[in-house]
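Take just one protein record:
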Amino acid sequence: TTEEAPSDVLTFRTEQLYVCNRDGGELKPLTQNEGLIYFYFVWSPDGASLAALAETFQEWRFMQAQADSKNEIFIPAGRLRLIEKTGRERRLDDNLTTVRPAWSPDAAKVATAFGTQVRIYDTIGDAPTQAAVPLRNQLLMSSKTYDENEQRKLEQTPTPDANANTNAKSNTKSNSNATANSNSNQTSNAAAANQPVGSLPDESTLVSFNPIVNLEWTEDQMLYLQTGYVKQMKNETESARSFLRWHRLVFSPQAIALGGGK
């Protein structure tokens, strides 16, 4: 005879979120959206709600197939959702992102990023608002300064003289090349000096200009964001993590125009 399956075994039909007490009891589903995969979540500092990333099964399979075709490690991208302990859930954005959300220390806001833009969402109230902070121009100028400093360091690094014992003819040739290079550098420096102050550089010329990959919110008025080039391949030798740089975004109160008395 076939034994009856035990009735007290917990089963999970989909990639939903569940909560329980610290002893592992009183387990209950927090989300019940069939067809969604919740692949990341983080509790708010006050423990009242969750910020989560989720995407549909169809999107998951499509993106996974794309990653497999490129021999890349699959990194899911999801839409930001706010989930309260009561089960109430709100989708905060319609766009997909791989950047994990970060809570403000007072649990009043949550942030994520899309490319070079940070978005911040109010989590209190029935109709939370959002604010977009485009940082492309600032990151371009930051990368320009960084690349120039790195190039300057390379130029100032002394190189050993490999031709110390060459004949006079070789020395003459080297000196002429040095003169040509000097003239070339003067020309390029003059062109750079003639560039209008405040003009934005071409992003294709900046090796350190990359999208936002990580957020850290440690103070109410200060958000840290990390940019960098991250490529994760199934063959680890082909993976790359370069130009990882941290930036600081400082928030300040906006001025409110008050009506003057008559």
